Amino acid sequence: MPDASTWDWNPGRREVQDTGSWSDKFEWVEEFHASPDGEKVGAVVKTGDMEFTACVNGDVWEERYDRVFYLRFSPDSRLTGIVQQEGEWTLSVDGKHWPEMYGYIWDTNFGPDGSITCAVQQDMEYGMGVDGVLWENFFENANNFTTGSDGKSTAAVVQVQSLDQADVDTFQKGVFSVAVNGTAWDNVFMNCYTPVFDAECKKVACQIRKTLYDYTIAVDGKIWQREFQCVWAPVFNPATGAVVAPVRLGGKWGMAQDGELIWPAAFANCWHQQFSADGNKLWAIVAPSFGKFTVAVDGKPWDVTAPVVIDLAVSPDGNRGAALGKDDKVYSVICDGKAWPGSFEMAWKPVFSPDSTKVAAKVEKKGRFTVLLDGKPYGQDFDQCWEPVFSPCSSKVLIRAIDGGKFVRIVADVSEF
Hints:
The protein is mainly beta.
């Protein structure tokens, strides 16, 4: 999360950039991106025949490339983009690209200290890099790339043994493992999925497939002593270090901790679990019956259900939850077991205030965008806007939006909703 304590929180509306004029300067302008603090807006622009760069607040990067994509602002508002030059790829940060070029890079992520990680393909082998420094060992296949909360620890599922086409026997004996900072576990498995780090980035857990029909969890390569019909992604308890994962037994889903059930296998589905910051409460998205999803805390589901529930958010104090409900093409925001008024063409993950008393969400209706606070819309909608950000004192909301061709930065008091 970016440090918002140094941002400008003076109430009011400020025009940052006339983005509408960019189309007169460039052959085309791609999707706009807003910095976390709302002080910058950027986009990929075409400046000539097969010549691309990025524009930030009206100023273009000096370098030109054959292709630029996947623009992302870092938490400290540097603009990054994956760039191609003469068939090779690298990362540009505020217009200055890394010195090394690669076969391909993707999946940019940021650390709290400004570090940047990417997945990398070089000479048809795969791994990861941190600030341009690559793993010492690369692999013929890698996927499920992940970065720890420190922004420097990296892991991925890797193939550690070659596999000929249709070589089912070797596959069933196991050819996959997890590489942590480039070093693979000693144990191999038929499949591995979704490696995750603990809070201190010292341990890694993942789903594994032991046989064609048996699944379980491995922690630092050591498997739980119980198999299940299926498992979903594990998480670490931030306080105790225990590992919990949704598991399937007898055709139903429950939750297991370190291999033992802590929620009975009573759900049609159970996944996307999330601990409170103190580790005392466990939240998850569950389906009490087929096709009816909701949120559960410590195994107890809310009464409200929807055909699909996504984007679970838990308040900083761990006592409140919010998520999105989806019924066909209609979205709703669900908070504390109740749906907010209104339905929307699209909605984005809810955001809690630092003091846990308020919830905001970006929504779209009739092609226009706005922000809701505790179910109440801001008094204006926009051509485009980004997810809201609360001030550290929880009394203000930052709205970053494009309104009539202008990128504007609005600091609204919560009383304005």
